[in-house]
Amino acid sequence: MRQSKLLLNTLRESPGDAETASHQLLLRAGLIRQLAAGIYTYMPLGRRVLRKAEQIVREEMDRAGALELLMPALQPAELWQESGRYEVYGPELMRLSDRHGREFALGPTHEEVITTLVKQEINSYRKLPVTLYQIQTKYRDERRPRFGLLRGREFLMKDAYSFDKDFEGLDRSYWEMYHAYHRIFERCGMNFRAVEADAGAIGGEGGTHEFMALAEIGEDTIAACTCCDYAANLEKAESGSSSKFIIGTGTGNLEKPEKFHTPNIKTIDQLVASLGVKTTEILKTIVFVADGTLVAVVIRGDQEINELKVKNFLGAEMIEIADPADVQAWTGVPVGFVGPHGLNLPILLDHTAAGMEQGIAGANELDYHYRHLVPARDMKQAKIGDFRTVKEGDPCPRCEEGTLKYYRGIEVGHVFKLGTKYSAKLGATYLDASGQAQSMIMGCYGIGVSRILSAVIEQNHDDNGIIWPLALAPYQVHLIPVSHNDETQMQLAMNLYRLLQEKGIEVLLDDRDERAGVKFKDADLIGLPARIVIGKDAGQGWVEFAERRTPGIKTTIPVEEVLERIRMNLGLALFP
Amino acid sequence: MRQSKLLLNTLRESPGDAETASHQLLLRAGLIRQLAAGIYTYMPLGRRVLRKAEQIVREEMDRAGALELLMPALQPAELWQESGRYEVYGPELMRLSDRHGREFALGPTHEEVITTLVKQEINSYRKLPVTLYQIQTKYRDERRPRFGLLRGREFLMKDAYSFDKDFEGLDRSYWEMYHAYHRIFERCGMNFRAVEADAGAIGGEGGTHEFMALAEIGEDTIAACTCCDYAANLEKAESGSSSKFIIGTGTGNLEKPEKFHTPNIKTIDQLVASLGVKTTEILKTIVFVADGTLVAVVIRGDQEINELKVKNFLGAEMIEIADPADVQAWTGVPVGFVGPHGLNLPILLDHTAAGMEQGIAGANELDYHYRHLVPARDMKQAKIGDFRTVKEGDPCPRCEEGTLKYYRGIEVGHVFKLGTKYSAKLGATYLDASGQAQSMIMGCYGIGVSRILSAVIEQNHDDNGIIWPLALAPYQVHLIPVSHNDETQMQLAMNLYRLLQEKGIEVLLDDRDERAGVKFKDADLIGLPARIVIGKDAGQGWVEFAERRTPGIKTTIPVEEVLERIRMNLGLALFP
């Protein structure tokens, strides 16, 4: 491609509202342009990258035995009403009416459509399992679109859905997709982790993994092992230490709980300051409302309670910290003085608290605390479990050697066991070998195809621009004659241009009448993997070869070696 | 691909609401399924065909130098208000509001978006010309969706837009697209004509061609030459005879106009019946309202007036047949007795009327007509022109030998000179060489990619099913072992399956445990170009080879010849 024909306008400055490196570079390198908040046009260069990502996804889905189809974006509202999501989904679901007043949703996802389709097409266990996928434009009316392609309102997704006759089958389908996702993100040159995650709003039973591209700007925190491949969302992460806390046993030698006066001392910080104790000597008690019922959770004073773990332990639908007034009304105790000893609420005791020999806690009486509270002796009615948020440095729950470390991640993929959530509601059944109708067992699997671009740029750039991994680069080689007016240079450039194209290499030829500095700056910004500069040594048949990922290293080579350099350094197979 | 894994359900019966062969076969062969009126899911087999059509379009667009981008479907309403189309487009434009109440349109076309984009990206003549295209989902809320993919509400289109600095450039861009369209539809194996057409609602200046797939079910009538490649929409078509009518000159010998009594004789049929004359002896006069002004059009009694030609001749925005009451109010004459002689209206005289030696016409007086009206003598104030609709058998306006014939056509593509319609309204200007701001000169070019499937099936089927052209066939070869339980057959089938795949052939293996009759019926329906049946001679190494387009011809060949047959008969290049 000749750069003069590419409708490629680079920007020296970042538009003001672009906060992240990837958003800035997508705009500056002329890959996308904004049409409205969260709605973008892919310019020719960006379209090429997007198509490459699409193609990698498609190839790996096909390899995994999934079948490609294409479902409509316009979805009848009745389907969403049937599944119960029409109201639940809220304002993120874009809605419209047709000329006859029939309501439609612009699909953010396709569980309803695919389940209805498969219900019509499959009736026997003989036709199961099947995994179907599409690469299709999705719509979500984000409250606050941001970060360019990361949180857009119109975006490209690959969504896949598996249908099995039993949960063993779902396991197989799930892991098939899981491994395909590994291949996809590896091929995209992405630094990612497959992260254990919570089911979330999409609902369903069983396991789920999020594929997270590691990046500072990520909106999710991940706890991952420094040694093995254990990784989980912070809210889901477990720690090797949690269950290793041994419940104190030496109760015989310990004093009885002693109530003491602590006027106006309501917080852990105040306790620490006034008593001169450590936070690890305090039993922290927080009261939650879970599905309308109060419950107290007790944890060691230096730890944080993980609401999700409490919610899952209780099997609750909804959980939140209780309103202080409600706590006082129910227990008769002001919040700052609630404690596990003598409280008339169910108590959940985190392992960290259960493992304390003794501790200080509220005495369930205004301006009083207890000391010498022994969990093993004084909180026998409590249920013990893992209710804490892991911390960096915690031992890994999987391996012996590693410790947990926090990372920030961008969710680029998601695999999810749905079970019968949709098949039961929408009546997608099959007849089993004995002729009985059974609900199909489903899984769903998403990849944010347009998101891949942002995530990869976020991980692959420097101060001067993008550093494209070969597999996603819009072109593989940038050919830059230094002077547009130098006939020798232009002749050599054209010869090389034709030669590389004949060998099947995707070449961008900077044939613009621009100063060398402008060309080099643009080339850095666009970030093609290899650059060949044809300059003053062109007459002697020498050119300069450089790779974008190692900007400091430039070698002058005879033009005859160009192909071999590209083959060796980029690892490209050439046409014969 | 193994057919047992393809989620392919054929239907023996056509669904009741499918009126056309292509709609029926798309459903019966399991290529598409309806989700809502005019909204379809492409099943795996249909998705493959759609992708092949996409790829042909993409390759030819790229070859023509057009750049691919991808614009959003969600378009801010303000852009449509700016172009003036938000109201004009009417209920076919699907509209919605986002969570903040901002209005959007779901794009049926992208003139507004692309013009705004190019306005931002291009400011100098140096960056022109450029042609941009996308392959993208479009939305149009058809009042009456029908014929499957032919008139849908969500469909796949290729739309391209050219930007030039002058009309000569537009000509070049236009014909580049015109020729690319020829290549595309030829590669799709389509029988089509490029048809001269009228500008229509999309508006603009200059030429336009519709690419019409010839098919009985087409909604448009085309007049095309039997010899040369002249073809035009019926409303636009000209005839070689139109301008060849010589205005009668022998006025000296003819009698003066004679008024005669014709009580209650208001129509041509009544004149013919009561006077015993031919329709060709009558001057038919119809009064139109063009932009609020009355005008009379006179044509020979056996001909039909073409409103579009009248409209274009007058340069009018709106035209319709005048209300009889208005005619009487304005001229004082009841409609059945209006005639060209002595009428106080402007008169347009069609060549067929101008060429008559003499004729009969209304006398502009109740119950009276004239005879011996001589156009060359009595209608000197009239403007002569081509105001008639061509008829079959008319001489071709282009070549000497041919005559016109009517065809029905399905519009599959459209190339259109827009001129400055959008660039002027949306302010898309460039600076010319002298630094003056000029409006860009635009063209737009559409192809109904999903429509191609319907058109091609409409042209390529028989009573038993589809007959895919090789370029669009979902698979190229259908491999059918007759008996699923015969190990020899299955072994040979598997060997051939692997061999053909290794050679780069797209094979569908019917590995289902079905009766042979079912397999053959399905194979006919699906319509892959070549079929290899592995039957009772499998043990001797013989198979049956047949092509779908010649169902009567089946040859038994040694298995060693299979590759050569495929290579020769289908014209496929094989991998080494």
UniProtKB/TrEMBL annotation, chains A, B:
PROSITE patterns found in the cross-reference section: AA_TRNA_LIGASE_II
Catalytic activity: tRNA(Pro) + L-proline + ATP = L-prolyl-tRNA(Pro) + AMP + diphosphate
InterPro entries associated with the record: aa-tRNA-synt_IIb, aa-tRNA-synth_II, aa-tRNA-synth_II/BPL/LPL, Anticodon-bd, Anticodon-bd_dom_sf, Pro-tRNA-ligase_IIa, Pro-tRNA-synth_IIa_bac-type, Pro-tRNA-Synthase_IIa_type1
GO CC annotations, alphabetized: cytosol
CDD domains xrefs: ProRS-INS, ProRS_anticodon_short, ProRS_core_prok
UniProt superkingdom: Bacteria
Location in the cell: Cytoplasm
A Pfam family annotated for this UniProt entry: tRNA_edit
UniProtKB keywords: Aminoacyl-tRNA synthetase, ATP-binding, Cytoplasm, Ligase, Nucleotide-binding, Protein biosynthesis
Primary localisation category: cytoplasm
GO molecular function per UniProt: aminoacyl-tRNA deacylase activity; ATP binding; catalytic activity, acting on a protein; proline-tRNA ligase activity; transferase activity
Aminoacyl-transfer RNA synthetases class-II family profile domain boundaries: 38-469
EC number of the protein: 6.1.1.15
Entry domain remark: Consists of three domains: the N-terminal catalytic domain, the editing domain and the C-terminal anticodon-binding domain.
Family as reported in the entry's similarity comment: Belongs to the class-II aminoacyl-tRNA synthetase family. ProS type 1 subfamily.
HAMAP family: Pro_tRNA_synth_type1 (MF_01569)
General function of this protein: Catalyzes the attachment of proline to tRNA(Pro) in a two-step reaction: proline is first activated by ATP to form Pro-AMP and then transferred to the acceptor end of tRNA(Pro). As ProRS can inadvertently accommodate and process non-cognate amino acids such as alanine and cysteine, to avoid such errors it has two additional distinct editing activities against alanine. One activity is designated as 'pretransfer' editing and involves the tRNA(Pro)-independent hydrolysis of activated Ala-AMP.
Name the UniProt record assigns to this protein: Proline--tRNA ligase
